[in-house]
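Table 4 source record.
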Amino acid sequence: MSNLNLLPWRELRRKELNRQVINIAVGVAIVMAGLVYWGYLYMDGLIEEQDQRNSYLEQEIKKVELELKEVNKVKKLKSQLLSRMEVIQKLQSDRTRMVKLFDGLARNLPKGMYLTLFEIKGNKITLEGSADSNGTISKFMRLIEGSSYFTTPNLNVINIKDDKGLRASNFILKFEFTKAKEKPEQVAQSTAGKSAATNQGAR
């Protein structure tokens, strides 16, 4: 009789079930904690990886910006060089025309004519002077009009008499630089060359 267990078997079963539930709950909690921790590590890894990508992209963007600055500097330098080349070419062209003008004036300035002013502003040239007659001025005009480097001049003549009763013609002549005009024989040669090329193509 002393070896008999007098505790109700239902109470023992209830305690056993409670212990199992507690064990299961602890196990689930541990698993959930592990999953949460693993998720945290995974997300932290993704964030770190994205930060590395962002850092790499920022570095590449800075490199590209530096390269763009260099390209812009090169473009600006190229533009400046082209502008200088255009100025140099224009100056060389103007110098050639000016040499021809001075040479023409020195060689062909009619007798009885004197220049008192020679002014250049950009492409515009102004000549002032005096001549003994309008015919002398007309002769000088033909010199300017015959040049292939200057436009048709604009002439203003004032006839006066000096104290001795001699007539004189003061004049102001204005004209501009222009592109060299082709001579008639050059135009004819160019037209003939185009016609020959067209005939050959037709054959």
